[in-house]
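INFO  loader      accepted 1 record
INFO  loader      residues=237
INFO  predictor   begin
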Amino acid sequence: MSEAAYSGFGEKALPFLKALGFHQNREWFHENKDLFETHLNEPRGRLIDDLAIRLAEMNIPLTCNRKTSTFRINRDVRFTKEKHPYNTHVSAVITRSGTKKDQGLLYFHVSPDESFLSVGFYSMESDELRAFREAIVARKDQFDAALKPLTDLGFVFDHDNSLKRTPRGFEHVTEPAVVDLLRLRHLTLSRPFSADRLEGTALLDDLLELARAAQPFLSFGWRVIDPVRAARDDSNR
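INFO  predictor   done
INFO  writer      dumping tokens
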């Protein structure tokens, strides 16, 4: 097993992000960019490098790299009224391809407000989401079994932006727990983590634990959406 180079985020990681939220101007950021690189960006890169190596060693079909898996500290303000130039968190995704556009992901989010880990299927195409919902109804026992390793670790579904009504075509479903799932716009689960997990290799260990526990759920989802994507791609040729 490879020796990990990642040894935690810097002690000024969260204070920097908190201060960035207060200042939110390019002059301040560039004056303090060395702090960002040393305490946040480079540690995140080492975490991603080591995570990719460990996932490959464990034969887990997920990967990541510094270029395609990380989100920029600069915000895209083109289509929003809120024009602050910088995010006040750092984050990254881990997927089968190592890119952000691939479905079935792990995600980590480091913030002075709340840091958390997430897993699942985010912002699926409408045909993928419908197929996923149909699979939940048809194979609820399998779905529950696939979720159990994650719920045992304290991960819970994200209900932000859930539908207020059951989606069309599923009106016949009456079991409250299933209806709750069908109203989700994203099939993602999350769990917060405390600031002390940024020290040492704790966050790397947590991500590896999550990757192992997530395999049944991710595999369930991939079996559902991969044929849908393949059929869509064929029809577009």
